[in-house]
C-alpha cells in the first residue's frame, strides 16, 4: 500500500504515533458529532442521510399539497459526460459535490452557489478507465468532523485509480492520499467512503477482472490502515473467530473461505463490495454486502464460494465478523450482493426487532435481525422471479429452479432476473411512520451462454455472453418496461403499490414526512409520488438521465431537493461509449437500445424548491459584478 502524506501539524513520525495513540479515546466524539449533524435538517451529512441509511427526511415544507409548485432554484454543471451516481453532501451551509472520472470535488457556499468556493481536480492514472467495469462512475463523498485542534474537518473521496484522499473541508487542500487498490490487476474504486468514529471504510471493485474483494478501515487523521478484511480466504483474513454465526451455525462458520473453493481459486474469486453501508452505533456493527464470485462462469469455480454474496456484520473497531449470511451460494448469474442496507426497528410477529433490510440482485428482498443475523423475511421483489422456487427459512438457502441454471454447453433462456438483478445499486428509502420501503428496481431478464477462459491479471475474467430484455410485464417487442418502483412492508411481506417505468429505476428513492417519494429515471425525469398511493404528483425533465439518488436540506428556512443528472452506469454504457453489439456492455447494450431516444449525456446537479425560491430569487443582485447602470444621456 503506497501512502502519500502531507499532513499539516505532523512534523515527524513520532507525532503520527501520538495521534494514533489517541484515536480510540476520542472516537465516540466524532461519531456523536456526525449523528447530531445528520439530525439537523440543514445538513445532509453522509450517504443515505444518517447511519440507518433510510434516506428519510422529517421535513414536510414540501408535501403532497404543494409539490406541484416545485421549480428549479439553481443548478450546477460538472462538465463531465459519464454517469453521475450518488448524491451531494451538505454540511453547515456548504454543499460538496462529487463527479464521475476524474472524480473532481466541488464546494459551494449555499448563500451564493453560483460561485465555486473551492475545487479539487485530481490527476489520475488514465489506465483506470480501461479496467472500469461499467462506466466511470463514483457513488459519493464522506465527511469527518474534527474532534481536535490539530486536524481539520475532512472530506473523503475515492478515486477510480484506487486512491483515497482526504481534503480540508474548508479549503479543499489535500490533507492525505493513500493507495487502496492496484489497477494493474483491475482493482478500482467507485464506492462512496463511509466514516465511522475516526475511521473511514473503503470497499473495492473489480470482481469482473478476478479481484479478491476486501474492505479497509483507515485512520482519518493519519491515513494509517487500521484493518483490512477479505471476502474469501483464511478465517483470519476474512475476520472469522470462534463466535462467528454463533446464533445461526447453519449459515456456516469456520474454514469455509477456503473449503468452499477449489484449490487457490479464492485468490481470484471476487466478492468485491462497491455498494452501500449502514452502521448501528449501539451494536458497533457495520453492515454491507460482498459481491459476485469470479469468474461469472460457475463451472470454473465449484463450491459455495464463501463468503461472496454475503450480508456482513462487522465490528467497526476490529473488522471481525459477528455474523454473515450468504444469500446466493455458488452464484451462477452475477447477482452481486452489494446493494443498500437499511436499518429499522419494527414489530414482527409480536416481537420488537432491530432489523436490516436488503433488496438483492437475486430477486429477493431480505430482512434479518441485525443483532444476530436471524432471517426474518425473504420475499420475491416481483412475482416473475423464476430462478428460485422459494427460500428455505430454516437454512436460509434459496431453492434453485434447475430450468434456469447456467451450466456449460447450455444456453440458459428467459432467466429472471438478469445479471443486473431485479435491484442494483439504487439507494432506496424507508419511511418509519408508514413502515414502508420504497424500492427502485429493475425488470430485466436474460439469456446466458457460458464459455471457458484463462485468468490474466488486469483483464476481464467473466466467461459468459449475455442478452438482456424486459421482464414478462414489460414490452419485449420495443425493449421498454425495464423498471418498477414499489412500496414494500417488511412486516407483512406485501407491496402496497407498484408502478412500471420505461427503463430501469437505477438511481434510488427518498421518502419525506411530507408524504412524498422522490426518484429519478434513466430517461431523464425526476418524479414525486404520493407515498401512500403511488399517484404521480409532479415531474421534471432533466438535461440527462438520472442514476443518482435524491437528497434534501434546509437553508435559510427553505427546503430544497437535490438530484444529480448524468446518464450512464451499467445501463448507459451503450449510449456513453457508442456501443452497438447487443451483447456488449455485459448485455446492457441490447436491453437499453432505446435509451438514446429519450436522453443524452451531460452531468450536473439540479436543486429545487417551492416556486423556485432561492438566493437569486430573493436578491436578484446577488453575485452581480456591478449594479451600476450607465446611459449615454439620450
Strand order in space, largest sheet: 1-11-10-9-8
Main sheet properties? 5 strands, antiparallel
Categorize the overall geometry.
globular
CA gyration radius, whole angstroms: 23 Å
Number of strands: 39
User: Approximately how much helix is present in the residues?
Assistant: under 10%
List the total number of helices. 7
Q: Note the beta-strand portion.
A: 25-35%
Mean pLDDT, nearest integer?
95
User: N- to C-terminal separation?
Assistant: 72 Å
Uncertain runs with pLDDT below 50, 5 residues or more?
A: 6-26
Category from helices, strands and their pairing: mainly beta
Question: How would you describe what is shown here?
Answer:
The protein has 634 residues and is mostly beta strands. The protein has seven helices and 39 strands. The strands form ten sheets. Strands 1-11-10-9-8 form a five-stranded antiparallel β-sheet, with no helix packed on it. A hairpin with a 2-residue loop joins β20 and β21.
Short description:
With 634 residues, this protein is mainly beta. The protein contains 7 helices and 39 strands.
Write the layout of secondary structure elements.
Layout: E1 3-5, H1 13-21, H2 27-39, E2 56-57, E3 70-77, E4 89-91, E5 94-98, E6 105-109, E7 116-120, E8 141-144, E9 154-158, E10 163-168, E11 174-179, E12 194-196, E13 199-202, E14 214-219, E15 225-230, H3 235-238, H4 256-259, E16 278-280, E17 285-289, E18 310-315, E19 321-326, E20 342-348, E21 351-359, E22 364-369, E23 375-380, E24 388-391, E25 398-400, E26 412-415, E27 429-431, E28 436-442, E29 444-450, E30 464-470, E31 483-488, E32 495-501, E33 510-512, E34 516-520, E35 525-530, E36 536-541, E37 551-555, E38 558-565, H5 573-577, H6 588-591, E39 604-610, H7 615-618
Parallel strand pairs: 2-33
Antiparallel strand pairs: 1-11, 3-39, 4-5, 5-6, 6-7, 8-9, 9-10, 10-11, 12-13, 13-14, 14-15, 16-17, 17-18, 18-19, 20-21, 21-22, 22-23, 24-25, 26-29, 27-28, 28-31, 29-30, 31-32, 33-34, 34-35, 35-36, 37-38, 38-39
Amino acid at each position: 500500500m503506497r501512502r502519500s502524506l502531507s499532513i499539516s501539524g505532523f512534523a515527524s513520525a513520532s507525532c503520527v504515533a501520538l495521534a494514533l495513540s489517541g484515536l480510540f479515546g476520542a472516537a465516540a466524539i466524532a461519531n456523536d458529532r456526525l449523528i447530531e449533524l445528520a439530525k439537523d435538517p440543514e445538513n445532509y451529512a453522509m450517504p443515505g442521510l444518517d447511519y440507518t441509511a433510510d434516506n428519510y427526511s422529517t421535513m414536510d415544507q414540501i408535501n403532497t399539497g404543494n409539490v406541484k409548485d416545485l421549480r428549479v432554484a439553481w443548478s450546477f454543471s460538472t462538465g463531465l459526460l459519464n454517469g453521475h451516481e450518488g448524491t451531494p453532501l451538505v454540511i453547515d451551509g456548504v454543499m460538496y459535490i462529487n463527479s464521475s472520472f476524474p472524480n473532481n470535488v466541488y464546494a459551494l457556499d449555499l448563500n451564493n452557489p453560483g460561485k465555486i468556493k473551492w475545487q479539487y481536480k485530481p490527476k489520475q492514472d488514465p489506465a483506470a478507465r480501461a479496467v472500469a467495469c461499467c462506466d466511470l462512475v463514483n457513488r459519493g463523498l464522506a465527511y469527518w468532523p474534527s474532534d481536535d485542534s490539530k486536524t481539520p474537518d475532512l472530506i473523503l473521496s475515492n478515486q477510480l485509480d484506487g486512491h483515497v484522499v482526504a481534503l480540508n473541508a474548508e479549503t479543499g487542500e489535500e490533507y492525505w492520499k493513500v493507495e487502496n487498490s492496484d489497477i494493474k490487476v483491475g482493482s478500482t474504486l467507485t464506492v462512496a467512503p463511509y466514516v465511522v468514529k475516526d475511521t473511514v471504510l473503503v470497499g473495492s471493485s473489480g470482481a469482473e477482472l478476478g479481484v479478491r474483494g476486501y474492505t479497509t478501515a483507515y485512520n482519518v487523521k493519519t491515513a494509517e490502515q487500521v484493518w483490512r478484511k477479505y471476502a474469501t480466504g483464511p478465517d483470519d483474513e476474512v475476520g472469522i473467530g470462534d463466535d462467528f454465526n454463533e446464533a445461526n451455525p447453519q449459515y456456516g462458520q469456520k474454514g469455509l473461505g477456503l473449503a468452499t473453493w477449489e484449490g487457490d481459486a479464492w485468490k481470484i474469486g471476487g466478492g468485491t463490495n462497491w455498494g452501500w453501508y449502514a452502521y448501528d452505533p449501539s451494536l458497533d456493527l457495520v453492515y454491507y454486502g460482498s459481491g459476485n464470485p469470479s469468474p461469472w462462469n460457475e463451472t470454473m469455480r465449484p463450491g459455495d464460494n464463501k463468503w461472496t454474496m454475503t450480508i456482513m456484520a462487522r465490528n467497526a473497531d476490529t473488522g471481525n465478523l459477528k455474523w454473515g449470511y450468504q444469500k446466493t451460494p455458488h452464484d451462477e448469474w452475477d447477482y452481486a450482493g452489494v446493494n443498500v442496507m437499511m436499518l429499522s426497528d419494527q414489530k414482527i410477529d409480536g416481537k420488537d426487532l432491530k432489523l436490516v433490510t436488503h433488496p438483492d440482485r437475486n430477486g429477493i428482498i431480505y430482512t434479518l435481525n441485525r443483532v444476530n443475523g436471524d432471517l426474518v423475511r425473504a420475499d420475491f421483489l416481483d412475482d416473475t422471479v423464476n430462478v428460485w422456487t422459494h427460500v428455505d427459512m430454516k437454512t436460509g438457502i434459496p431453492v434453485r429452479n434447475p430450468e434456469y441454471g447456467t451450466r456449460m454447453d447450455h444456453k440458459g433462456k428467459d432467466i429472471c432476473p438478469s445479471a443486473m438483478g431485479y435491484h442494483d445499486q439504487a439507494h432506496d428509502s424507508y419511511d418509519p411512520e408508514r413502515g414502508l420501503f420504497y424500492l427502485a428496481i429493475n425488470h430485466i431478464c436474460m439469456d446466458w451462454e457460458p464459455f471457458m477462459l484463462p485468468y490474466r491479471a488486469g483483464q476481464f475474467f467473466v466467461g459468459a455472453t449475455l442478452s438482456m430484455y424486459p421482464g414478462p410485464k414489460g414490452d419485449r417487442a420495443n425493449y421498454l418496461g425495464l423498471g418498477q418502483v414499489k412500496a414494500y412492508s417488511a412486516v407483512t411481506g406485501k407491496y402496497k403499490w407498484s408502478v412500471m417505468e420505461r427503463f430501469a429505476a437505477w438511481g434510488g428513492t427518498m421518502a419525506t414526512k411530507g408524504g412524498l417519494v422522490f426518484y429519478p429515471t434513466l430517461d431523464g425525469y425526476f418524479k414525486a409520488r404520493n407515498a401512500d398511493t403511488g399517484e404521480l404528483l409532479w415531474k421534471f425533465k432533466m438535461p440527462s438521465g438520472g442514476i443518482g439518488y435524491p437528497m434534501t436540506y434546509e437553508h435559510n428556512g427553505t427546503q430544497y431537493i437535490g438530484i444529480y443528472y448524468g446518464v450512464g452506469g451499467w445501463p448507459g454504457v451503450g449510449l456513453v461509449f457508442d456501443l452497438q453489439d447487443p451483447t456488449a456492455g455485459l448485455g446492457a447494450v441490447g436491453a437499453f437500445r432505446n435509451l438514446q431516444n429519450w436522453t443524452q449525456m451531460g452531468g450536473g446537479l439540479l436543486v429545487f424548491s417551492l416556486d423556485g425560491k432561492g438566493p437569486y430569487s430573493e436578491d436578484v443582485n446577488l453575485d452581480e459584478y456591478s449594479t451600476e447602470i450607465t446611459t449615454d444621456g439620450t
